[in-house]
């Protein structure tokens, strides 16, 4: 199949390129300068040129805190951008696989969020991503929204790389221990998306609508940091573990409010044979790749 990928330089974009490299699909991958999804004209022109069979949207405005003061930009990409992709895909009669976030929820749940649960974003980023989901649902006949969470990889900026850097710079660190979620390896998400592309190619169908894809074991940011340090030391990515203090969200104020509990229920994808990300195993792989100096 001819797969059109947006946001090729992001964590997911790079992992998806790696995943497709071993497949029989033809990939047409674009960065934000080659294909700015906020521009309807650019989207229309590239779709006409590529004539894809399916679209994978890995492009997003992902600066959660900055979004609080850049609402227009966040919505231009995460809402209008998704709408442009949906319109162009619809005019070609092709489906869109789109990625969204756990931050569409308010975090007040006491059990993992199902795709059908009530959304109530706490910040501009979450609101812009939810608006994108809604725009897609309004315009596209066949689409998948995969909500994911706490994404890490060997590429770009993420919590794993930040913790490893801080471990070399500091002797002591404080990390929030009262926000719970599921770390997700972007490489596993990429493989899950590729598996869905394969299913679509074979059957012409997919379980259209909203699904959740994330790591299999919930933790807190503090728990995630502790695991990163243990594995970092084991793999030689750091040579000492800093003293780690658990703090509350109140003690680490950020411009954007984050959900306290954003564990996602991944059952609907498991029923399709797509297993959740084994993030502990993936963390070992990422440590190895970082030792090989992926940037
Ligand atoms: N990272 C997380 O923890 C997390 C958590 C939950 C959900 N998600 C979702 O998962 C998906 C993938 O996230 P990620 O971590 O791979 O994000 P990322 O590393 O921040 O990559 C996003 C990519 O989108 C590109 N982009 C931004 N504006 C664009 C535009 N107008 N047109 C085209 N491309 C544009 C960026 O390019 P430039 O660098 O050139 O701007 C960047 O390469 C996103 O939908 C995100 O909302 C992420």
UniProtKB/TrEMBL annotation:
Cofactor note (record): Binds 1 Mg(2+) ion per monomer.
Cofactor: Mg(2+)
EC number: 1.1.1.133
GO BP: dTDP-rhamnose biosynthetic process; O antigen biosynthetic process
Enzyme class: oxidoreductase
InterPro entries (alphabetical): dTDP_dehydrorham_reduct, NAD(P)-bd_dom_sf, RmlD-like-bd
GO molecular function, one term: dTDP-4-dehydrorhamnose reductase activity
Cellular component GO terms, alphabetical: cytosol
Keywords tagged on the record: NADP, Oxidoreductase
Catalytic activity: dTDP-beta-L-rhamnose + NADP(+) = dTDP-4-dehydro-beta-L-rhamnose + NADPH + H(+)
Pathway of action: Carbohydrate biosynthesis; dTDP-L-rhamnose biosynthesis
SUPFAM superfamilies cross-referenced by the UniProt entry: NAD(P)-binding Rossmann-fold domains (SSF51735)
Pfam family membership, one: RmlD_sub_bind
Domain RmlD-like substrate binding: 1-290
Stated family: Belongs to the dTDP-4-dehydrorhamnose reductase family.
Function, in words: Catalyzes the reduction of dTDP-6-deoxy-L-lyxo-4-hexulose to yield dTDP-L-rhamnose.
PANTHER family: DTDP-4-DEHYDRORHAMNOSE REDUCTASE (PTHR10491), METHIONINE ADENOSYLTRANSFERASE 2 SUBUNIT BETA (PTHR10491:SF4)
Protein name: dTDP-4-dehydrorhamnose reductase
């Amino acid at each position: 199949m001819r797969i059109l990928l947006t946001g090729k330089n992001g964590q997911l974009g790079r992992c998806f390129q790696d995943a497709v490299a071993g497949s029989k699909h033809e990939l047409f991958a674009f960065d934000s300068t080659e294909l700015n999804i906020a521009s309807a004209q650019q989207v229309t022109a590239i779709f006409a040129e590529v004539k894809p069979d399916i679209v994978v949207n890995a492009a997003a405005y992902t600066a959660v805190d900055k979004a609080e003061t850049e609402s227009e930009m966040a919505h231009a990409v995460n809402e209008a951008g998704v709408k442009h992709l949906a319109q162009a895909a619809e005019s070609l009669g092709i489906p869109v696989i789109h990625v969204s976030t756990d931050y569409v929820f308010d975090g007040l749940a006491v059990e993992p969020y199902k795709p059908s649960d009530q959304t109530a974003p706490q910040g501009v980023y979450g609101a812009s991503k939810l608006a994108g989901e809604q725009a897609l649902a309004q315009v596209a006949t066949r689409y998948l929204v995969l909500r994911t969470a706490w994404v890490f990889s060997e590429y770009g900026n993420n919590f794993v790389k930040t913790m490893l850097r801080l471990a070399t710079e500091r002797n002591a660190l404080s990390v929030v221990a009262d926000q719970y979620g599921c770390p997700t390896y972007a490489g596993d998400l990429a493989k899950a998306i590729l598996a869905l592309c394969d299913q679509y190619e074979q059957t012409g169908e997919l379980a259209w609508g909203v699904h959740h894809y994330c790591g299999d074991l919930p933790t807190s940011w503090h728990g995630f940091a502790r695991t990163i340090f243990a594995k970092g030391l084991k793999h030689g990515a750091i040579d000492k573990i800093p003293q780690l203090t658990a703090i509350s969200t109140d003690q680490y104020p950020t411009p954007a409010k984050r959900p306290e509990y954003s564990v996602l229920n991944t059952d609907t994808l498991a029923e399709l044979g797509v297993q959740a990300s084994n993030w502990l195993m993936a963390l070992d792989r990422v440590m190895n790749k970082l030792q090989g100096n992926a940037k």
